[in-house]
Amino acid sequence: MDIRGTQLHPDTVFHIFNRGINGAPVFYEEKNYNYFLQQYARYVYPFVETFAYCLLGNHFHLLIRVLSEDAIASATNSNKEKPCYWHVSNAFSSFLQSYTRAINKMYERTGPLFESPFKRIPVTEEAYFSKLVTYIHQNPSKHGLTDDYRDYPHSSYHAYLFEQRNTKLNRAEVLEWFGGEKEFTQFHDDQYRQTKLSLDESWLLE
User: Fold this and answer.
1) Helices marked H in 44-180 — which ranges?
2) Between the CA of residue 48 and those of 26, 64, 195, what are the distances in Å?
3) φ and ψ at 54, to 5 degrees?
4) I want to staple 118 with a disulfide (CB 3.0 to 4.6 A). Which of 18, 99, 124, 201 is the partner?
C-alpha cells in the first residue's frame, strides 16, 4: 500500500509522520518546537482531534483522528465543492509550508524542509492504537535522544499526567481509553520494559 497516497477521510484515525529532506534537521532550537505546535493548532486543529505527538530533531509523529464530514464542512469557509479529505490534506500541507517558510527566513536557508508528501497510515485496530500512543511517546529513547522518554520535553506524554487547561489534545478520551491516568502510565511502563528487554537480549540473536 502506498501510504503517501492514502486519503485523510473523515472519522478515521491516522498515524502522521514525516522527516527533514534526506534526514536533515527540522528543529534547530527550542523555540522551533513551540512554533511548530502553534502552526499546527492554527492550520490543522480545526479539522482533527489529536491524541499524541512527538517532535524530534529531524522528524515528527502525530496520532490524529479526522473529524466528521459535518464538522469539516462547518470549518470550511471556501471551496466547499472540494471533498472533505482535500481540506484536511490541504490543512496539513499549509501547516508544513508555513513552518518551512518561517524556518527558511529565520536561518537563511532555501528550498523544502520536509520530505513530500507527508506520510500517513490509517489505524484500524484497537490494540494498535494503544501501542502507537506509547510508541510515539517513547520515540526519543528509541533514537537515543534521552535515556528515559519520560524526561523528553517535546512530546505529549506529560500533558496526560498533569491536567492542562489549554491543551489541544483529546486528553479525556485517551485517558478513558486506557482506563485512567494510572493505567495510562502503567501501560507505557510495561511497553517500555518489554522494549528495553528485547534490546538488551538482542545479542542472543547474533
Assistant:
1) 69-75, 84-107, 126-142, 171-178
2) 23, 6, 30
3) -150, 130
4) 18
Grid cell listed for 116: 513530500
Helix (H, G, I), strand (E, B) or coil at 56: coil
In the chain, the largest separation of any two C-alpha atoms, in whole Å, equals: 59
Q: How many C-alpha atoms does 90 have within 13 Å on its Cβ side?
A: 11
- Of 185, 173, 168, nearest in space to 44 by CA: 168
Give the residue among 129, 161, 156, 127 at the shortest CA–CA distance from 140: 156
| pTM reported for the whole predicted model | 0.89
- The residue among 163, 150, 106, 129 whose CA lies nearest residue 49 is 129
| Nearest Cα to Cα of residue 130 among 83, 204, 168, 186 | 186
Question: Within its chain, how far is the Cα of 151 from the centroid?
Answer: 18
CB count within 10 Å of CB 187 equals 17
Instruction: Evaluate whether 137 touches 154 at the Cβ level (below 8 Å).
Output: no
CA 37 → CA 33, 45, 52, 101, distances in Å?
7, 10, 12, 15
Dist. CA 72–CA 48, nearest whole Å: 9
Residue matched to cell numbers 506509547: 134
- Cα–Cα distance measured from residue 135 to residue 66, given in angstroms and rounded to the nearest whole number: 20
Partners of 19 in beta bridges: 59
- Summarised one tens digit per residue, pLDDT across range 144-197 is 899 899 999 999 999 998 766 567 899 999 999 999 999 999 999 998 888 765
Give CA torsion, residues 52, 183, 135, 103, to 10 deg: 30
